[in-house]
What does this fold into?
Amino acid sequence: MAAIEAGIAKATTITVLLTVAYDGTNYAGWQRQNNAVAVQQRLEEALEELFAQPIKLTATSRTDAGVHALGQRVVFELPALNIPINKLPQVVNAYLPPDIVVQAAETVPLGFNPRFAAKAKTYRYQFYNAALPNPLQAHYCAFVPRILDVNEMTRAAQVFVGTHDFTAFCASGSSAKTFVRQIFSCDITQNGELITLTIKGNGFLYNMVRIIAGTVLYCGLGKLKAADIPGIITERKREKAGKTMPACGLCLMEVEF
Amino acid sequence: MAAIEAGIAKATTITVLLTVAYDGTNYAGWQRQNNAVAVQQRLEEALEELFAQPIKLTATSRTDAGVHALGQRVVFELPALNIPINKLPQVVNAYLPPDIVVQAAETVPLGFNPRFAAKAKTYRYQFYNAALPNPLQAHYCAFVPRILDVNEMTRAAQVFVGTHDFTAFCASGSSAKTFVRQIFSCDITQNGELITLTIKGNGFLYNMVRIIAGTVLYCGLGKLKAADIPGIITERKREKAGKTMPACGLCLMEVEF
It folds into this structure.
């Protein structure tokens, strides 16, 4: 009898996939924490207030404290949805602070997991390159007050494209089963004082984008050459790569399934 | 004797002109307030800590609460300066929070007043035009979730160029002696969801840029036509112009002497 009831409940469950943007400045990252406010908590609270029932969110990426997102993807289940799905973003946003915004909502098949279903993720890392910092960019860029060789940074970024073992570009303590990831594209663009690294891959290890950004920056500063990177990849030693750049410059831009 | 001492003190006084950038989000505007923190107070405190004496700042523009600046100009006097003037920005910045940054310093003749010496000021007003807000732009743009006729906004901006009586574009309670101001240029640019009004003039009345931005926006929304603006200027009635846009979209870009 219990099994039948569970079966009925399951059959009517709706799985909702949200696209979420957030300014990570004032959050302890995506994932719920015991002693700090995370984006997951704020969004779960908003949905629980709206739907008057417990909500458990599963996200594609557990972004770190201070990291931003324009295209985080998040899933939750509901027994029923009595709001048109395309109206859901505006309704949820009324329950959210201005630094978290639901951008889109759609229904997906039961059991859809946005972490395992992700085929590609795109991140950007922003540098602000000038003699003195810009207070309007302080939360969204790493400030670099040194002359940079942007051509060498462009060559360095290109070296990461392909399928490689990224052990040298992963923070220690990672529980990853394999350190092999495929990078589809990795580019540098410049717009005045803003230099942006845009990287798309099938997945990223812990701190991988921030360490790649630090390595590309070292190439811009002349501390490394783009030609050194294949050797650093092969050697698989974290200390040979560049430093881990600050969280504020990082933004999760897009997830493709 | 007192007069001679004052004379000697004056002869050795150095007048320093600073270029200052700030994120106005967390401040009650430029001007010192009794019950809220203003940018002037923070900067005076930093300079007083550095020079170990009272400092009184005079700025070109008394920007309102929430308004940003990339090129505010500020003057103070000192009996002597024992730091090379070109090193002063970095030294002062060490005493400032990250949302206020001194960008440049130079010496100017005694009695130089950055308010009266200003020949031209440039402001920008930013609109974020999309169906849903972008949390990374929330502090720096007015959010407009409606379809905009950007060509009509461009035509509307052009109408403001020239010497006009801007009574209709001034908040009530202004103590201005004359409402005539000359606008040298007024342009609209679009970059994706960002629409920017850039306006340069010999001076601006209280809330004038925010009311011009609201009037240009009304032209984008079809509530007004660019061709209506000459009549609004002539009629000199505040209620005929558009609404006063929020402070967060406004930024003082440049002051020319």
Notes: Residues 208-221 of chain B form the longest helix (14 residues). Chain B has a mean pLDDT of 94. The helical segments of chain B are 2-11, 39-51, 88-93, 150-159, 208-221, 229-235.
